[in-house]
């Protein structure tokens, strides 16, 4: 078993024991897709690329790509991004 897997398992057990939400403890992102018009991405680490067709965001130990048309960033905070437009696809690369 890889060290990374052991580390995640320990963090999950601590999270359960202390009743801390796992997304906070395990550095997981939360993504909410509203129809094909909006994507809310919480617990991100920054924007890699922003065009009207692609928004790439660092999440956890990977990257999420929002692909579509007329994409705009409606809200950007230190832990949340809202992407609006005609959303065609979401991709996650670890």
Q: Which architecture would the CATH scheme give at its second level?
A: Sandwich
What structural class do the secondary elements suggest?
alpha+beta
Which fold name corresponds to the CATH topology? Immunoglobulin-like
Quick one: how many beta strands?
6
Give the averaged pLDDT, no decimals. 85
Give me the secondary-structure topology.
Layout: H1 3-18, H2 22-25, E1 30-34, E2 38-42, E3 44-50, E4 54-59, E5 62-76, E6 80-93
Antiparallel strand pairs: 1-2, 2-6, 3-4, 4-5, 5-6
Can you walk me through this structure?
- It contains two helices and six strands; from the N terminus they run H-H-E-E-E-E-E-E.
- It has helices at 3-18, 22-25, and strands spanning 30-34, 38-42, 44-50, 54-59, 62-76, 80-93.
- With 94 residues, the protein is α+β, with helices and mostly antiparallel strands.
- The protein has a six-stranded antiparallel β-sheet, with no helix packed on it.
- The protein is elongated, with a radius of gyration of 15 Å.
- The mean pLDDT is 85.
- It is 21% helix and 55% strand.
- The chain has one domain (28-93): Immunoglobulin-like (Sandwich), CATH 2.60.40.2000.
Features:
alpha+beta, elongated, 94 residues, 6 strands
Task: Summarize it.
By secondary structure, this protein is α+β, with helices and mostly antiparallel strands. About 20% of the residues lie in helices and about 55% in strands. It has a six-stranded antiparallel β-sheet with strand order 1-2-6-5-4-3, with no helix packed on it.
């Amino acid at each position: 078993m890889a060290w990374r897997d052991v580390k995640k398992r320990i963090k999950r057990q601590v999270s359960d024991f202390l009743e801390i939400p796992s997304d906070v403890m395990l550095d997981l992102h939360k993504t909410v897709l509203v129809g094909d018009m909006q994507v809310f991405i919480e617990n991100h680490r920054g924007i890699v690329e922003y065009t009207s067709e692609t928004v790439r965001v660092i999440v956890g130990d990977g990257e999420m790509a929002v692909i579509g048309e007329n994409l705009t960033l409606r809200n950007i905070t230190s832990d949340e991004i809202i992407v609006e437009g005609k959303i065609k696809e979401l991709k996650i690369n670890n």
